[in-house]
Amino acid sequence: MTSAVTNSFQRLLGDFLKADIDSDRPGYYLGLARAESFTEPTSISSESFQRQARHTLQSVKTINSVSYVIPTVTWSSGEIYEQYRDDNHAQTNFYVINSSREVFLCIEQAKINGNAQASTIEPTSTLAGISAKTFATSDGYKWRFLYKISNLAYSTYRTNSYTPVKKIITFGTIPEEEQQFVLQDSSVTGEILGIHIDSGGTGFVSRPIITIGGNGSGAAFISEVNEGKIVKIVVDSDGLGNFTHGSNYDYASVTLTGATGSGAVLRPIYAPKNGTSANPIETLRSSAVMIQGQFDGDETSTIVADNDFYQVLLMRGIKKYANDSDFTANTGNALSSLTLTSISGAFIEDETISNSLSTAIAKILVLDGSTLYYYQDEETGFGTFAVGETITSGAATASITAINNPDIKKYSGEILYINNISTGVPRETTQTEDIRIVINLG
Asked: What are the tens digits of pLDDT across the range 278-336?
């Protein structure tokens, strides 16, 4: 027998993570690490690999924001989209995002003689109205309008791979959120969105009448027959343009009457319990959270910007270097540095420096004026430099006049996530890195 974590539990974990970040954002930081390429080990989640990342940590920055996300499925003419089903959480194309940043749930797929047809008419809110009801397009598909992505959410979280999704609890001046709140509030509980055909049966000369039993009411569907089999079932309408999905069903059964034939197995497809529009996170089965932040150059001279990074970390609970209290500043330098005088020659990034007896060796991150930022790892050892010593790097020499501590204790807190970047990213004071981390709980 097998076991599985349900989508509800995944969402619960996502809710906990998102709420904790929202309530304690100064406790969560993005970190940039590793100035040189490296060979990725078998286990990147090991304590050993985390420690190596800490050795090379350059700087940290508070995250800006967090959101649930779903895989991006852009509507395209000629594509076939799947009808929403409640028995297949591996579905990936049962919703679409149109060219106006509007998100729609596929309620019914177009079929001819039981064969799925491509969508050729883009669903839009103009066709739907500001309504949580099912609407039809002339290509035979039926859809539900769920929400429109705001400009802010789109620019912050939208990528080729992911699209933001949220439930609106309160709204301010963003019109898309007010619109979504109205849709959420009009959601109908206990609907039956469709009927899935497990088996079309045999011997049907005419289409049978479908009757829905159960503890709800109002659901009505129409069958279509081809070559003796039931090949399609569509939701009925009440003659006023409203499709009849019913309401308040916790359970239901499908029976057929009024026609010969046998062996058909039909199963109701239930909407999410509180309705399709009540919580798009649930309806679209999001199990991923995107964390977004930016490193803007040297962050007004508070961090070092002139080298590469090959790792992005998500960290929590970092401590100040000075007194071991919680670090809560917006940015933090994680590098020790030496103030130098009598500099002769060039101190080159990623080369090593050493004192005269080679009891202290380190790797150069960057020489910024008279300040040399460095890091140490198992390769260099962790010897200590002293004021008054002369350091060398190749033909370059300089004297140490001061030793400067970082802002943070790089070995404090927790590393929650590591992203290794194969090609590395060069940093400069004139550029901004927009970093987006997706934590997939599925």
From this structure: 999 999 999 999 999 999 999 999 999 989 999 999 999 999 999 989 999 999 999 99
The DSSP code sequence of 351-400 is: -EEEETTSSSEEEEEEEETTEEEEE--TTT------TT-EEEETTEEEEE
Q: How far apart are CA 151 and CA 153, in angstroms?
A: 6
- Does residue 222 or residue 129 have the better pLDDT? 222
- Residue of 62, 141, 128 whose CA lies nearest to 100: 128
Task: Give me the amino acid identity at 401.
Answer: T
* Domain ranges for the chain: 68-152+164-189+276-281, 192-270, 336-405
Which tokens in the block code for residue 318?
């970092």
Three-class SS of residue 402? strand
Structure letter (DSSP) for residue 27: G
Give the predicted TM-score (pTM) of the model.
0.90
Sign of the CA dihedral with 213 first, then 215, 220, and 226 last: negative
| 219, 246 contact by CB (below 8 A) | yes
- Give the closest residue to 131 by CA, choosing from 268, 284, 243: 243
Q: Which strands make up the sheet holding 65-71, listed edge to edge?
A: 162-165, 65-71, 288-296, 432-440
Is 117 a residue whose pLDDT tops 90? yes
Q: How far is CA 341 from the centre of its chain?
A: 48
Mean pLDDT check: name the lowest of 4-8, 114-118, 231-235, 245-249. Answer: 4-8
CA-nearest of 143, 152, 103, 91 to 119 is 143
Judge whether residue 25 has pLDDT over 70. Answer: no
317: left (phi over 0), alpha (psi -120 to 50) or beta: left
From the list 348, 207, 187, the residue with the least C-alpha distance to 266 is 207
- Could you tell me the two tokens for 113? 């003689």
Distance between CA atoms of residues 89 and 9, nearest Å: 13
Q: Give me the residues paired with residue 74 across strands.
A: 97
Strand ranges across the sheet with 102-108: 95-97, 102-108, 142-148, 135-136
